[in-house]
Amino acid sequence: MSQMQISRTNDSAQDVPVSVLVGFLGAGKTTTLNRLPRGVHGKKIAVVVNEFGEIDVDSQVVTRETRADAELVSLANECICCKLRGDLLGAVEDLTQRHDLDYILVESTGLGEAAPIAQTFYAPSLEGKVKLDAVITVVDAAHFWDTYEDPHAEGKIAGESHSHSVAHLLAGQIEFADVVLLNKTDLVPEDEVRRLETFLRELNDRAKIIRTRFGEVDPAKLLYTGAFDLNQAGETEEWQEAEEELEHVLAEREGDEDHREEGEDHDDHESEDDGYGFASYVYATRRPFDLDALRRQVFSRWHQVAAGVARSKGTVNVAGSDDVLLWNQAGRRVSLEVLGRWREDSQRGTQVVLIGRGLDTDALSEALEACTLPEDQPAPAVASPVSPAGRREEIVLGVAP
User: Fold this and answer.
1) What is the pLDDT of residue 338?
2) Are strands 71-76 and 350-356 parallel, antiparallel or unpaired?
3) Over the chain, what HEC string results?
4) Which long-range contacts (CB under 8 A, 24 or more apart) does 67-72 make?
């Protein structure tokens, strides 16, 4: 990717532009995010990563992949569109104290709603300091219809008696977007890509649609675009609801209980896992994996072993190798990619977060444990656990190796 030469065009030298990345689990937000700071020449960029689950995989990947001068802020285990909205505000307030900062990129969790996140940047404390540049939604071309048409993917939002399907979330992420990145287009036929593009335009005819593979996109198409339209966003019901919620967030930060209505408890606003029925489970072990056993016993029987898992990711320690592997699964595909090398003084181990509905954590743990070797058992001789060509292996789940 060629590096981008850009100059700021803000109304004020203090207005730091902000772009927000949303998109469903596994769509490719982190992959896209990793590439943007590396493609911008001579700019100081801060990256705010909002992670689902108890381990912060995305920030580990971003730290390894982005330039050293990109500042990273991690907000984990809750959603910045609800429970961590005050933390997001505080993080951005802190970032604006840096006078050399040129841009802020915010990555939401896969179940984050765009409007509340975007509206946060219009809090009074950020006036004259930041300016929302664009809301960017990443869409997974390979798995969109499986998720959107899943009749079981429903949940209830706090304070509402009716269910909201995941389709409702996906549609909202698309409808609020200024730019839609249609990712993984190399994994589906051209006619299916065109069908999905037609659907996206029906939901949002003003957004720019950009096809991508592996999150590769020219930064000039995403940064410093001024694509966000406050007047248009302000007319939506989602924006108005987000404004009301922000008032309560500000009141709680200031300790002003008078802003609460009698009998109302805004701390009970449900997080994403409550609202849509998703939960996360972390598998961790110090014992190294036998990678062949993992392929044979887990990946080839994924729907039986990992029923309900929509997304999983983590770092893996493989017997007989000094490579740190990145495990990255979305839908029917999992990739194993060399992320780096274990340091001599590091404590090797595997941590994988699995996200989904109705997870059988005992069965997951048992299946994964069966693929590990005792620490005192000699490791099998392997030249490299991942093919040297590209240092990345992709497996179609449920297909025997």
Assistant:
1) 87
2) unpaired
3) CCCECCCCCCCCCCCEEEEEEECCCCCCHHHHHHHHHHCECCCCEEEEEEECCCCCHHHHHHHHHCCCCCEEEEEECCCCCCCCHHHHHHHHHHHCCCCCCCEEEEECCCCCCHHHHHHHCCCHHHCCCEEEEEEEEEEECCCHHHHHCCCCCEEECCCCCCEEEHHHHHHHHHHCCCEEEEECHHHCCHHHHHHHHHHHHHHCCCCEEEECCCCCCCHHHCCCCCCCCHHHHHCCHHHHHHHHHHHHHHHHHHCCHHHCCCCCCHHHCCCHHHHHCCEEEEEEECCCECHHHHHHHCHHHHHHHCCCEEEEEEEEEECCCCEEEEEEEECCEEEEEEEEECCCCCCCCEEEEEEECCCCHHHHHHHHHCCECCCCCCCCCCCCCCCCCCCEEEEECCCCC
4) 67/37, 67/38, 69/44, 70/37, 70/44, 70/45, 70/46, 71/44, 71/45, 71/46, 71/47, 71/95, 71/98, 71/101, 72/46, 72/47
Select from 133, 138, 102 the least CA-distant residue to 210: 138
Is 385 a residue whose pLDDT tops 70? no
Provide the pLDDT for residue 160. 39
288 vs 382, higher pLDDT: 288
Cβ atoms of 229 and 44 within 8 Å: the answer is no
CB-based contact 168:195 (threshold 8 Å): no
Residue 50 pLDDT > 60: yes
What tokens were used for 198?
Answer: 């037609």
- Over residues 184-190, the mean pLDDT reads 95
Per-residue pLDDT, 60 = 57
Q: Which residue has the higher pLDDT, 162 or 316?
A: 316
Backbone phi, psi, residue 253, to 5°? -65, -30
When the pLDDT of each residue in the chain is averaged and rounded to a whole number, the result is 80
Q: Rounded distance, CA 66 to CA 64, Å?
A: 6
* pLDDT over 50 (residue 213): yes
Which domains, from first to last, does the chain contain? 16-258 (3.40.50.300), 279-396 (3.30.1220.10)
pLDDT value at 7 more than 80: no
C-beta separation of 305 from 370 below 8 A: no
pLDDT at 75 over 90: no
